[in-house]
Design a protein that fits this description.
The structure holds three protein chains of three kinds. By secondary structure, chain A is α+β, with helices and mostly antiparallel strands. Chain A folds into two domains: 4-226, Rossmann fold (3-Layer(aba) Sandwich); 240-350, Beta Barrel (OB fold (Dihydrolipoamide Acetyltransferase, E2P)), CATH 2.40.50. Chain A contains eight helices and 20 strands. In chain A, a hairpin with a 4-residue loop joins strand 12 and strand 13 (263-267). Chain B has two domains: 8-55, no CATH class; 89-335, MetI-like fold, CATH 1.10.3720.10. Helix content of chain B is 71%, strand content 1%. The two termini of chain C are 42 Å apart. The relative contact order of chain C is 0.10. In chain C, helix 5 (143-174) packs across helix 9 (226-237). Chain C contains 15 helices and eight strands. The chains are: A alpha+beta, B mainly alpha, C alpha+beta.
Chain lengths: 361, 339, 350
């Protein structure tokens, strides 16, 4: 039971609006990730769901019940803080028990729950240590454990991996996914790291400046980004954008001229595009092929980064920077002229406002 | 704390010129000294002025204090004084009953000890309570917090003499307090002529004067507690009282211990503002240890430096115990693994 | 106006008022009155004439009875508002009082004496600031002398404190030598030896050095403060040792390293110590009281306490001099309050 619904939720601090009119429904058992650059309001949104901040207007419902005025403790949620927020003067066991003692739960029940969580998270050896004596990864597990013992209807996780080093982050990510599968509880996860979002989420909510840019499964966002912002934010390395103008229209396709004069046929769906309109073509670095041929775009190499399995090329197309990730090893020198082929690449077309042109499809 | 760049140019530069000149002149002989002593030898040179002053005005008096306490007579200089062994201590401890100062040979000493004891117990308790409550209040989500902090801190900088005079003026017969009572329909009272009120006044005034300082230390401790601990507690449904006892108080404990010991040490030595406010009176009702030592050693008709020294060594012993207590507590706190 | 009230009473997250908010504001407003009230009352009182000071109940603001010079009388006469037998009120000047009757004249018609029952007259009062409370101590008493002594002690002691303590801190933070720990411990141990414990032997030493009844006898014992060495050393430890090594590579002498490199970089800590030292020395009382027995050497604090302890206290002068004594500290408070509070919070010293 962890169905959360936000209707027209707004939040302002004084005169500053940080959340504009959010509508969102999170299903029971779903793993939803809020992702966006810092300051986009994702943490504020999470804190409002938690009950630590109150929405300025709008309605927040958990399992069909409006909880706007319900105190944080009574919403049945548990939160994992970015800093873990473990009580430094209590042992791990006391940290886990503290919240349960507040509800006057019987002692043996508390002990049973702690034992279960400790086993699940493999923190049994540290139960009598204090947080200061644990490593970052161990503290992180304790923080999750403190949420688990509460048996919440939903877990709220605020950038829980950001204080771990890269290697630990990868393994903990996998454990979190396994934990979600095992507990089958709703989880709302806030991060600014799109890799975490892609790997963990059932659905991703991309936020920018207090507004939802797009909601969808990771692959939906990757394959059909709704706008230039999402297209640029999801995927690594970032998508290339080539500026161009519409030459002519043929049903769902258009002929576009790039800045360098190269012409290209692109899909525009049912959108109405007028001749001469400025558009941007988005192509992911992995989808660009190297090679000559008539249809290829002439480019000049600026920098070559050989990673062994693949080669990252920084190229220049008529003054626009283009990044190409080519599989395998290539013997290329900076300054060399090459051709880039987009024939096999999915091309995302955005209008001058940054909206996807075939979005209607 | 950054230096104002514009302040360095112009006037201040001219003002600094003689100092730069002096420092430059000193450089040549000191280079010669450095050649003679080596680089590490210069450490001794830098340490010397401080150590000399420190040795003459702190260490030396500290040691000859013991010698003084074993001599008698009214002579000032040690060589002129006669050795009496432990007589001064014996005199201090010569009592029929330690509970009744009247039965002691040196009854004012025991009166001072008893007064100081009561003063310490009451003043320290109240001071801690008042400072803690104020710090907790200032730590709340508050409009203009730095203004309110300044309000409570203001008397800390005032000199004890000024503090004493301010309150002497308020507590006198035609003072503000009597005016207030009179307006409310009560009879005026000459507070500082009353033994009990006078004693209470010394406690109240010393709290008024110093509470801002301790509030500040406690507030710094409170602000060092991460806010998200309270948010986690809120998510866990912790009631405010339980959050105070289980989170705030344990995490504030290091600062609280420092404050307790500081307040204790200062309370034992209380003198300045009380001397101006009550002069130890009426009678001996607000006579505290430091004033006893001062009067026995300097102000009395028949001054007795040996007796004063003996009493000051007893007081020093109490202070050493309290300071060691602080160091010990500080160390065990560090061992606890935090910071 | 209502916007201001709303602004002042708004609560975090728009939550309503809670009983703790009432406690908070009661405590704060009560604190404001108790903390500032006495000092404000002192300043207000310092502008009252001796007669106004002796009044009970006292007035908040300084008032005096208006006087008028009437033809035919040498001295100015007090003005009263008197109710005559016919019920009318007139302003009259009192010539003399006999029993319950007062003989009064109308300033406009000085010839005619009017008799009024003293219960039927009230003095005509005007606000008047007795600035002579401030000016007279400067001209008739040694007040200027005390002020000068205090300034001299404060400035000299602070300068010596800064130089001597920064040199010691430099030695203790940037050199490795045998006995460094011992020196550090010795200095810290001084914290356990307050003045009240060693005043008898210290007095004999100061006398033996010929410093009794000398301002230097007040200054010297105070300048080697352990707290000063401590905060300067803590600050200097944060200056990288590479800087000292780099200066040595540049052929700087140790003395140059001290005053050209370390001292300028320690400026913030020096400033904190300077402020504290000024406040400490300005406020010192017990030690000057012991060392200074000649009137012309008194510092402000000693002079004030001696005058206020006299049998016939001239409160109007004492109050005014107390206000003057407060001024430097209040200035420090107003301009450097934030600086000091962060200093205390950071180091825990006073």
């Amino acid at each position: 039971m962890g169905h959360i619904k936000l209707t027209n939720v707004k939040k302002s601090f004084g005169a500053v609006d940080v959340i504009h009119d959010i509508n969102l429904e999170i299903m029971d058992g779903e793993f939803v990730v809020f992702v966006g650059p810092s300051g986009c309001g994702k943490s504020t949104l999470l804190r409002m769901i938690a009950g630590l901040d109150r929405p300025t207007s709008g309605e927040l419902a958990i399992d069909g019940k409006v909880v706007n005025t319900v105190p944080a403790a009574d919403r049945g949620l548990a939160m994992v803080f970015q800093s873990y927020a473990l009580y430094p003067h209590m042992s791990v066991r006391q940290n886990l028990a503290f919240g349960l003692e507040n509800t006057r739960m019987p002692k043996d029940e508390i002990a049973a729950r702690i034992a279960e969580a400790a086993r699940m998270l493999e923190i049994e050896p540290y139960l009598d240590r204090r947080p200061g004596q644990l490593s970052g990864g161990q503290r992180q597990r304790v923080a999750i454990g403190r949420a688990i013992v509460r048996r919440p209807v939903a877990f709220l996780l605020d950038e829980p991996l950001s204080n771990l080093d890269a290697e630990l982050r990868g393994s903990t990510r996998a454990e979190l996914a396994a934990l979600h599968a095992r507990l089958a509880a709703t989880m709302i996860y806030v991060t600014h790291d799109q890799v975490e979002a892609m790997t963990l989420a059932d659905r991703i909510v991309v936020l920018r400046a207090g507004r939802i840019e797009q909601v969808g499964t990771p692959l939906e966002l990757y394959n059909r980004p709704a706008n230039r912002f999402v297209a640029g934010f999801i995927g690594s390395p970032h998508m290339n954008f080539l500026e161009g103008t519409v030459e002519s229209m043929h049903a769902t396709r258009a002929i576009a001229t790039l800045a360098g004069g190269h012409r290209l046929e692109v899909p525009v769906g049912s959108a109405t595009v007028t001749k001469g309109a400025r558009i941007a073509l988005g192509v992911r670095p992995h989808h660009i092929a190297l090679g000559g041929g008539e249809a290829s775009i002439p480019a000049k190499i600026r920098l070559v980064e050989s990673l062994g399995a693949e080669t990252v090329l920084h190229a220049d197309v008529a003054g626009q920077k283009v990044l190409v990730v080519a599989p395998g090893q290539h013997d290329l020198e900076p300054g060399a002229d090459i051709g880039l082929s987009l024939s096999a690449a999915p091309i995302h077309v955005f209008d001058d406002k940054g909206l996807r042109l075939d979005h209607a499809l | 704390m950054r230096m104002d760049e514009s302040g360095r140019s112009g006037l201040s530069q001219i003002a600094m010129m003689p100092i730069h000149f002096l420092m430059g002149v000193l450089d040549a002989p000191l280079r010669w000294l450095q050649r003679a002593t080596g680089i590490n030898g210069m450490a001794a040179f830098f340490l010397l002025p401080n150590m000399m002053i420190f040795g003459v005005f702190v260490l030396l008096p500290f040691f000859i204090n013991f010698a003084y306490s074993m001599t008698g007579g009214t002579a000032l200089f040690l060589p002129d004084r006669s050795f009496v062994g432990a007589d001064q201590y014996a005199r201090l401890f010569d009592c029929g009953s330690y509970i009744d100062p009247g039965s002691c040979a040196e009854d004012t000493f025991w009166t001072a000890v008893r007064n100081t004891g009561w003063f310490v117990v009451l003043q320290v308790t109240l001071m801690i309570l008042v400072s803690l409550v104020t710090a907790l209040i200032l730590n709340r989500e508050l409009m203009a917090r730095s203004f309110w902090r300044a309000v409570f801190f203001f008397p800390v900088l005032l000199s004890p003499v000024v503090v004493g005079l301010i309150w002497k003026w308020i507590l006198q017969r035609q003072g503000l307090l009597n005016f207030g009572l009179y307006s409310l329909g009560f009879d005026p009272h000459v507070w500082l002529n009353d033994r009990n009120w006078s004693f209470a006044a010394t406690i109240g005034v010393s709290i008024w004067a110093h509470m801002g300082f301790y509030t500040l230390i406690l507030l710094a401790g409170l602000q060092a507690i991460p806010k998200d601990l309270y948010e986690a507690a809120e998510m866990d449904g912790t009631r405010p009282a339980r959050a105070f006892w289980r989170i705030t108080l344990p995490l504030l404990m290091p600062n609280l211990l420092v404050v307790v010991v500081l307040v204790l040490i200062r309370a034992v030595q209380i003198f300045d503002e009380v001397y101006v406010l009550t002069g130890g009176g009426p009678g001996t009702s607000t006579l505290y240890l430091t004033q006893y030592i001062y009067e026995t050693g300097f102000a009395a008709q028949l001054r007795n430096p040996g007796l004063a020294a003996a009493a000051s060594i007893l007081m020093g012993a109490v202070l050493v115990v309290l300071t060691l207590l602080q160091l010990g507590l500080g160390r065990s706190e560090k061992k606890g693994g935090r910071k | 106006m209502s916007r201001i009230v709303r602004f002042l009473t708004r609560r975090r997250g728009g939550k309503g008022w809670h009983w703790t908010d009432i406690v908070t504001w009661t405590w704060l407003v009560g604190g404001l009155l108790i903390m500032f009230g006495p000092a404000v009352w002192l300043v207000g009182s310092s502008f009252k004439s001796p007669a106004a000071l002796a009044e009970f109940p006292p007035t908040i603001l300084p008032y005096v009875t208006q006087k008028v010079t009437v033809e035919g009388y040498d001295k100015p006469l007090d003005l009263y508002e008197a109710t005559l037998e016919d019920g009318s009120t007139v302003v009259l000047a009192e010539v003399r009082r006999i029993g319950v009757m007062s003989q009064m004249v109308d300033p406009a018609k000085p010839g005619e004496i009017i008799k009024v029952n003293i219960a039927k007259r009230t003095p005509v009062r005007e606000m008047s600031f007795a600035t002579e409370n401030y000016t007279e101590p400067f001209t008739h008493f040694d007040f200027v002398r005390y002020l000068w002594n205090s300034v001299f002690v404060t400035v000299t002691a602070t300068l010596i404190t800064l130089v001597v303590n920064s040199m010691a801190a430099f030695a203790l933070s940037k050199y490795e030598f045998r006995g460094r720990t011992v020196a550090m411990l010795l200095i810290l141990a001084t914290l356990m030896v307050p003045l009240s414990v060693i005043m008898v032997p210290l007095y004999s030493i100061v006398s033996a050095l010929g410093l009794f009844n000398s301002l230097w006898g007040v200054i010297l014992p105070t300048v080697a403060t352990p707290t000063g060495v401590f905060i300067l050393r803590q600050y200097m430890l944060t200056i990288p040792d590479e800087l000292v090594d780099a200066a040595r590579m540049d052929k700087a002498s140790e003395w140059q390293i001290y005053w050209r490199i370390i001292l300028p970089l320690t400026a913030p800590a020096l400033a904190v110590l300077a402020i504290f030292s000024v406040v400490w020395r300005w406020n010192d009382f017990l030690w000057p009281l012991i060392v200074l027995s000649r009137k012309e050497l008194y510092t402000l604090q000693v002079g004030l306490s001696i005058y206020s302890g006299e049998l016939n206290v001239q409160w109007h002068f004492i109050l005014a001099m107390t206000v003057v004594t407060m001024i430097p500290v209040v200035l420090v408070f107003i301009f450097l309050q934030r600086f000091i509070t962060t200093g205390i919070a950071g180091t825990g010293l006073k």
